[in-house]
């Protein structure tokens, strides 16, 4: 028996080695499962967070685009409004200039009609004749000095044809009445022009006030939307940075998970097979030790010496 002590000791060492190997496999399996599960969970969380951030980015980009379009539309509206104000102001000035010109023309017409009527009164109804103001006397003096030469279109002077001309008061009155009608028409036209001018000016001023109010509202709206746009751009920049960080973390974790699979997949796939093979091996070693230790194993005693020798040889090679 003394000659088998060394072999028995080697068998014990081999059994101990197999137990350590099994403990190592168990610990590594637990480590692999834990790390792989944790890594997969982290990748899922990172993927979900990245998806949420992407949705927020898409939403913010849509809001930013809509806000930019609104700002552009408001700016275009203000430009068009300014153009309308400029055009309306130009038109109002032209209308007012035309009004002033017509008003001046009507005033001159009224003055001419009054002068003509007064001259007719001098001939047909001297009692109603109003002598010209001193400032106008040079004109009449000049006419008298030139032997009262008649101007084209002027009524005949009563002093020139007085004795030889038979005054037809009725016909003269008709002329005066016609002048009165013309004067009344000019007066009505002037009144209508003044009313229209007043109404046009009031409408213009109201339109300018409305345009100014609308411009102020649109300008405030643009300022508010510019602020919203700046905030959206800041948020987008921050979210894009967060997205990059999440993707980087997910990429790193994916690489780590791949390394775990490379290191663990074979063990996880063959763990049970290794356990079974190790149990068989341990049992064989213990059976061999029992034989060498003189235990009563009739079955092993009937085994051939060659089989026992082969088994021990395999175990010794494994240990070495």
Structure description:
The protein has 320 residues and is mainly α. It contains 6 helices and no strands. α1 (5-124) packs antiparallel against α4. The radius of gyration is 61 Å and the shape is rod-shaped. The protein starts with a helix and ends with a helix. Residues 138-155, 158-165 and 295-306 have low confidence and may be disordered.
> What does the average pLDDT come to?
82
How many helices in DSSP terms?
6
Question: Termini distance?
Answer: 23 Å
* Envelope shape: rod-shaped
- Regions with pLDDT < 50 over 5+ consecutive residues? 138-155, 158-165, 295-306
Task: Please bin the fraction of helical residues.
Answer: over 70%
Features:
single chain; 320 residues; mainly alpha
Give a summary of the structure in a few sentences.
This protein has six helices and no strands.
Helices and strands, with pairings:
Layout: H1 5-124, H2 137-145, H3 158-161, H4 169-292, H5 298-302, H6 305-319
Helix pairs in contact: 1-4, 1-6
